[in-house]
Every structure is written in structure tokens, then in C-alpha cells.
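By convention, the C-alpha cell line describes the chain's fold. To illustrate:
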Amino acid sequence: QHKLVVDYSTGMRKKIGLAAALLHNPEVLFLDEPFEGVDPVSAQTIRGVLERYTRSGATVVFSSHVMELVESLCDWVAVMAAGRITARGTLAQVRGDAPSLQSAFLELVGAGGRDDGDSLDWLGGSR
């Protein structure tokens, strides 16, 4: 009763934010990294809520850097690099011939084949 939302853990704040976003039952829900900084139990709860929500006919759009999560939850994806969409479509369309969405993502953002850590050119400069 006397606790501010800001005083809760990251996971609890994510769940509170999701509850607030769902209050008005929007047709489309936009979430920014809904699973970031969330413990496994909270992640499972959030995942269940989002799956039930989409089964009801709503659309959930969320951003994530975790491609395994995207592959397990999404049926349509868009890849953004430098503020532009570089690919969009079903998981199979975006993945193409790549062995995984992670591999496809790395190629699409220009970081494919850079596993030595020496070149950070793909990060862009602040020149």
C-alpha cells in the first residue's frame, strides 16, 4: 500500500507494466524487451499471459535481442538495423537458408562471420 512502483524489483515492475498495459484490452500491445531482467518464474508468467492474449485475437509486438525467444514466441518478425527494417516476414522467410534466426540476424545487421571480437565496425561510429 505504501510502496512505490519504482521500489519494486525489475521483474515486478515488468509485471506491473504489463498489467497496466492490458487494463484497457488493446487490440495491439507494444512491449519493449518484456523479458529483459526478469527471473525465470516471472518470464514464464509473462509468456503465459502473452500467449493467452494473442489466442484471444490480439496482436503483441515486442522488441528483443534474444533470437531464441523470438523463435519460440513469434510467427512474424522484422529485423531492424540502423533504424531501418532490413527483413520482415515469417520466421522461415527471415531465416532463409541460415541455420538459425540468430545467424540470419547477424548477417542482416552486417555482423555475420565476426566471431573474433576484433572488429567492431558494425557498431557504427559517433564521428
